[in-house]
């Protein structure tokens, strides 16, 4: 006979771990199934840090969700006795002709967020590690910073276990089916389990588990690096913010020194070709190192020391780069969560809460229309975009 639960969560990465925690906290009988070890480096959430920006050029509608996420990161950090969110401020830098800064500023105005606009000289005075192009402008948002991402997954899983969730690592879902009673039955190599609700948060594997989503999601490999700082004092937490930098060479992001002797730099614009997440290794693309190094030498020379390490990580993109958080149209007992497109981690704590709300109450207090499956179907009909991975 199958073991039964209230909710089964498939994929215990950034989003799934938060969902397990939020569900178990409410007294739900939860089973979390994870394909690899808890806290692995094959998906999208590994690495020590993720930027949390409250100013949101991707859309003002994200701000209430990221504000809630920030509160939850702080609250959970207090509960485990170790901070998960670090308020270093976040600096977004772009050319004055780009609309990036204006869109971020608008999101600050819409939601009453503290912010400061800075010209190039002001940025360089405040943060002498930067050497920016003449026409640069920047928006600084002081309540932003970064989240300790790997640590947060382990924290959420630890809290879920303490609240009696059952978490099974190294146990991939093989398939699932609806039951006659309106629930779900899932099968793994080790057993069959039933539940009233199923949360699918498998990150880059979403198109494999829900084939209908394969045409509207594509997986790309991102490379990032850690570089020996030449002037570490300019890159310390109290002197340097989390940042994004849009320059002629592309987009880059980075962090103050924290938890690793190297300066972490990534570039979301060098994703390369579609990537099959079942590829057994995660080798970084060799060409990316040169791109990252050029950026450091030109714009952040204080961090342009030797390469300490390179890693690859996966983005799961939607065509409009907004998330997918919705129930499946034919199976309302199944909730799909693919909050990535390269900017999802900061939201994970709040997405866990949203998923728990959807699983237990059938609704969330947040407006999720931006993340609906319906908007992708409409767009597909209109633009006819195809599958890329
Ligand atoms: C290099 C890089 C930098 C980023 N920087 C930022 C940033 O600064 N700020 C930000 O907000 N976001 C950032 N992001 C995006 C963010 O990291 C992702 O949005 C987030 O990690 C996605 O979490 P997830 O839970 O959807 O995926 P994951 O954490 O990958 O979790 C999915 C899990 O599902 C498991 N799984 C898959 N198939 C199965 C199966 N059949 N059975 C059981 N389990 C399964 C996987 O093994 C995995 O553990 C970045 C991403 C990358 C790659």
Automatic annotation (TrEMBL):
Residue span, FAD dependent oxidoreductase domain: 6-358
Pfam families: DAO (PF01266)
Species name: Labrys wisconsinensis
Cofactors: FAD
NCBIfam families, A to Z: PRK11259.1
Gene3D superfamilies: D-Amino Acid Oxidase, subunit A, domain 2 (3.30.9.10), FAD/NAD(P)-binding domain (3.50.50.60)
Keywords, in A-Z order: FAD, Flavoprotein, Oxidoreductase
Protein name as annotated: Sarcosine oxidase
């Amino acid at each position: 006979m199958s073991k039964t639960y209230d909710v089964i969560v498939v994929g215990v990465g950034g989003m799934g771990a938060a969902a397990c925690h939020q569900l178990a906290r409410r007294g739900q009988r939860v089973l979390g199934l994870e394909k690899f070890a808890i806290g692995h480096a094959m998906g999208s959430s590994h690495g020590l840090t993720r930027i949390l920006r409250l100013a949101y050029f991707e859309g003002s509608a994200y701000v209430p969700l990221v504000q809630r996420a920030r509160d939850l990161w702080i609250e959970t950090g207090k509960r485990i006795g170790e901070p998960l969110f670090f308020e270093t401020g976040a600096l977004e830098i772009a050319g004055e002709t780009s609309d990036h800064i204006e869109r971020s500023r608008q999101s600050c105005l819409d939601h009453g967020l503290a912010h400061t606009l800075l010209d190039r000289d002001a940025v360089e005075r405040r943060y002498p590690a930067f050497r920016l192009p003449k026409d640069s402008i920047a928006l600084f948002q002081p309540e932003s910073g970064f989240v300790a991402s790997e640590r947060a997954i382990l924290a959420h899983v630890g809290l879920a276990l303490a609240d009696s969730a059952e978490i099974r690592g190294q146990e991939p879902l093989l398939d699932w089916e609806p039951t006659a009673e309106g629930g779900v039955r899932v099968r793994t190599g080790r057993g069959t389990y039933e539940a009233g609700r199923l949360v699918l948060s498998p990150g880059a594997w979403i198109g494999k588990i829900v084939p209908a989503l394969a045409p509207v999601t594509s997986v790309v490999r991102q490379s990032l690096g850690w570089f020996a700082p030449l002037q570490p004092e300019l890159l310390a937490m109290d002197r340097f913010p989390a940042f994004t930098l849009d320059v002629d060479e592309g987009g880059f992001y980075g962090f103050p020194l924290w938890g690793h002797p190297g300066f972490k730099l990534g570039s979301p614009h060098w994703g390369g070709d579609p990537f099959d997440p079942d590829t057994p290794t995660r080798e970084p693309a060799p060409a990316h190192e040169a791109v990252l190094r050029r950026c450091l030498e030109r714009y952040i020379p204080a961090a342009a020391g030797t390469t300490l390490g390179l890693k690859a990580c996966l983005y799961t993109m939607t065509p409009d780069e907004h998330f997918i958080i919705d129930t499946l149209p034919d199976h309302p007992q199944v909730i799909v969560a693919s909050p990535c497109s390269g900017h999802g981690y900061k939201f994970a704590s709040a997405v866990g809460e949203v998923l728990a709300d959807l699983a237990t109450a059938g609704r969330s207090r947040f407006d999720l229309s931006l993340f609906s499956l319906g908007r992708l179907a409409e767009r597909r009909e209109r633009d006819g975009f195809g599958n890329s991975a």
